[in-house]
Design a protein that fits this description.
Rossmann fold, five-stranded mixed sheet, 3 helices, 23% helix, elongated, Toprim domain-containing protein, Topo_IA_core_domain, TOPRIM_dom
Amino acid sequence: MSVLILAEKPPQAKAYSEAFPKFGKKDGYFHVPPCSLLPTGGNITWTIGHLVELNTPEDYKEEWKNGELPKLPILPERSVYKVSPSKRKQFNFVKRLMKEADTLTVAT
């Protein structure tokens, strides 16, 4: 059973990692080897705030681009999200680690 602990920010993930007897820093996460608290080991990663954001109005309809008063309110049929370009790398780490984990602990 693999455990993933999801923190809000890198310093928080580091603080959680330091609570374990041993841990290793990886690119985008910390790895905790098996120990008394995590018998099968686990990983600790972070989200850097919001990894995804709502699409902009013009992503839904070109006519919503300028937010003109007569066209308000902007109410799409369904909200669509996209990965924040500046956070794509961390999003991919979180996505991969979540697929590998059997248990997810949200520790934000």
